[in-house]
Structures are given as C-alpha cells and as structure tokens.
Amino acid sequence: MSSIQVSKVLNNNVIIADHPKYREVVVIGKGIGFNRKSGDDLALTIAEKMFILTNQQEQEQYKQLIPQIAENLIEVVNEGILYIMEHSKVPLNEHIQIALTDHISFAIKRSEQGIAIHYPFLFETKEMYPDEYRMAEYVVDLIRKRFDVDLEDDEVGFVALHIHSALTDQHITEVKQHSQLVADLVQVVEESMEYTIPRDSLDYSRLLTHLRFAIERVRSGHIDQDVGSLDKLLYQEYPELYSLAWKMTKIMEQRLRMPVSPSEVSYLTVHLQRADEKRNAQIR
Predict the structure, then answer these.
(1) pLDDT for 166-183, tens place per residue?
(2) Topology given in CATH for the domain delimited by 174-283
(3) Domain named PRD: which ranges (predicted)?
(4) Whole-prediction pTM value?
(5) What are the CB-based long-range contacts (under 8 Å, 24+) for 26-34?
(6) Which of 27-31, 197-201, 248-252 has the lowest mean pLDDT?
(7) pLDDT over 70, % of the chain
(8) What are the domain boundaries of the chain?
(9) Which helix (DSSP H) or strand (DSSP E) does residue 71 occupy?
(10) What is the residue-wise DSSP string for 214-229?
(11) Can you give the pLDDT at residue 248?
(12) pLDDT digits (tens, 9 = 90+) for 235-258
C-alpha cells in the first residue's frame, strides 16, 4: 500500500487519513483537503509537501486547536515548518505543529490588540542557537508579509525556542529555563567582575556558546573527574576567577539538578580570564 486513504476532511489544509503504517493520522498540507472526500486515496509520494501527526495525543490536541485557527494561518505555518524541515539536519518533533501554530495565532492577536510581550533573552538566543534563530527570522518574516502584521523581533526569539525544542526533543519550558540559566550566569559574572561584557564582542559570544554546550554536556551525563595540571595552574594564577567559575558550576548543578564535571571549572576560568583582560584594558 503506497497511499493514504482519506477518512475525514477537516478543512482545505487538514485531513484525517488511514496510513499504511501509523493507522489514523492527521495530515496537514496546502490544499490537501480541497475537493477530497472520505475514501479517496492520496499517494504517499506527496509526503514532502505535507506534515503527518502520528502521535495520538498530538492528533487530539491539533484537532481541538483547528476550530480556533484561521485556515490561511494553518497553511502559512505549515509552509514555515516545511522550510524548517528542509534546513535542519535532524527530524522535527511533531509537537511543533501545535506549539508553533498556537503561538503564532496568539502573537497575531496580541499585535492586533497592541499588546507587546518582551523576550528578555533575545541576544542570548541568537548567539546560542544561530541556526534556529535564522529559521525563526524566515518564519516571522513570512507571517509579517502574508498577514500584514507588525510582529516585533521578540517573536523571533520565541519562535527560535520552539524550533530548538522541536529539534532537540526538549520541552519548550526546559529550553526557556536553559536560556534563563545562561542569562543568570552571565549576570553573576558581570556583577562579580563589576564589568559589563560588550554584547557584540567575540568574548561574549564565546562565553554564551560555552555555557550552552556546558549545559548540554551536563544533560547528557558527561562527567570528567580528572583534574589535571591545567586546573592547578589556573587555580594558582587566577584564584578569584577560578572561584567564580566554581560558583557558576554550583549554580548549574542546583538549577539542572545534575552533577557538573569538575573540568568545567577550568574551561569557564579560561573564558572568564579573557573577559577580565578586556576589563583591565578598559580600566587602564
């Protein structure tokens, strides 16, 4: 069987169908329900032009969402998701259909009502997830053009988080918590050093990137217990920065509720030393 059979047409862009492998599925695609009726067969070869929800819970959530969403928005969001699929290296968690459709629908309503919601970690998100951010820019620009709506750049940050969540199979709440953690760690650094790291500097970008991958290493359970000569040297040469790095790892352990490798202290100390050099250069 190389086709799906239409069970019910929900609208021009969404149908319920019988799939040869997944049984009942929700299929989303531009015009996929147009002039279709129950019992019609659709070739699976058009799969690249559609998105299939196979998880039953996701299907039910999407069915509940459809009556609340303009049909042309479903079409445009699906176009954006297809763009993300084409430009990402790993499969997307299908929950993005629900999360992104719901979020963008609400964002449009808020914009029309003149209600703006600020995203405080926009710069951090752009630095930590550059690929997701670029894809989010495309999606938000697509929505702006198709609906003639003035969405703020903050929405790019929100959409980037949804994309990262779908690419990594992390819940959006967890992704937000990690962005908050990175921002809080940077604040700890700047308060301790009494120095604001320039947001457009390479040192800031490197620090954010390191913190992102440090969090991912912790989440993966990677523990390196070896404390070598470099650690001892850094402790002797930069005791205050080493102490600050140790404090940061303890914050990470507390917030992530997972152990952090001792070697992370040394890695962080190196990044802090770079920032400290720039701070001292400005003071002179």
Answers:
(1) 999 888 889 989 889 999
(2) PTS-regulatory domain, PRD (1.10.1790)
(3) 68-173, 174-282
(4) 0.79
(5) 26/52, 26/53, 26/58, 26/59, 26/62, 26/63, 27/51, 27/52, 27/53, 28/52, 28/53, 28/62, 28/74, 28/78, 28/97, 29/78, 30/75, 30/78, 30/79, 33/9
(6) 197-201
(7) 95
(8) 1-54, 69-169, 174-283
(9) helix 71-86
(10) HHHHHHTT-------H
(11) 95
(12) 888 999 999 999 999 999 999 999
Q: 38: closest CA among 48, 24, 57?
A: 24
What is the C-alpha to C-alpha distance for residues 186 and 76, in angstroms, rounded to an integer? 37
CATH of domain 1-54: 2.30.24.10
pLDDT tens-digit series, residues 115-168? 878 888 888 889 889 999 999 999 999 999 999 999 999 999 999 999 999 999
Enclosing H/E stretch for 8: strand 3-11
User: Do 1-54 and 69-169 show the same overall fold?
Assistant: no
Class at the top of the CATH hierarchy for domain 69-169? mainly alpha
For 231-263, what is the HEC assignment? HHHHHHHCHHHHHHHHHHHHHHHHHHCCCCCCH
Provide the token pair at 140. 């938000």
